[in-house]
Amino acid sequence: MERRRFLKGLGAVALGSTVVSRATKAYSAEKRFVWRMVTSWPPNFPILQTGAERLARRVGELSGGRLTIQVYAGKELVPPLGVFDAVSQGTVECGHSASYYWAGKSPAFQWFTSIPFGLNAQGMNTWLYQGNGLKLWQELYAQFNIVPRPAGNTGVQMGGWFNREINSLEDFKGLKMRMPGLGGKVLKKVGGTVVLLPAGEIYTSLERGVIDATEWVGPAHDLRMGFQKVAKYYYGPGWHEPGSVLEFIVNKKAHDALPDDLKAVLDVACAELNVQMLTEFEHENAKGLQTLMKEHKVKIKHFPPEVLKGLRKVAKETIEEEASKDKMAQKIHRDFSAFQEKMRPWANISEREYYNFII
Ligand code: CA
């Protein structure tokens, strides 16, 4: 009897401590977070801004309202290209953008969006999730107090709109083209003139002959820009951006302050957006291309293989030069190149063989 009472007492103590620890957990679990997300996209910009808003909505749903993210389009809170600094400095908790916009900080940033003749969307995802991609990305961004996650992909972009036919590498000589980033550097090396224009000025520049060509995104977005009215040829593929990754970036201090389950919510929502956005791009581009071909009678052109071969050779030199500019870029470049090489024989017998047959 004494013993039973004693054991009961122990039980009560043990139970009591469980109750206390559960209560502590419940308390932290109930803590609510309200975050702000800034993006590099215009308000309502299809797929990209709507994707960022989707991410915020899903985080709210998955967390049962414990993590709320208010989304601000480019210029609403910070300039479109001020996203990285705002997140790094903790002005806001998070952002949605693309890493290659920050290439001015270090050339290393470019590998986490896309590089000319680099990996396509499937390859980028494989490098990021299965290879060292995300680890290297985290290592680079840790220097800026930022935690990055892949959150979307454009798929293969288009090569651009041209008012001149491209039959050989020679045809790039003297070509004035709107082409930012590494693609622009390659264009310069083959004799083209790179013209950098804000989105709002591309159409009129093409119309007035200030430029002979422009790249943008893919059929879905290009159609809305109306380039079909002011350019003769639409060239593919976008060798300069074969699978551009979009990023979700979080201030490290804000990320550290989250309980583990909310960190997991962010990871899951980003992975979901990664699939959602790529498939939305694929679907909208397929529809957009049909419209361009059938309604607008656009001349769809393929870059000749010799042109792509020539561009690829120049791109390789350009990328080597970029990589040699700093240690981290070199480290990322080595890993990326080795990974691309490792995947090549498998891609050759699987995706490539199948595509060649089915299309
Ligand atoms: Ca582009």
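^ calcium ion complex. The first strand starts at residue 33 and ends at 39. The mean pLDDT is 93.
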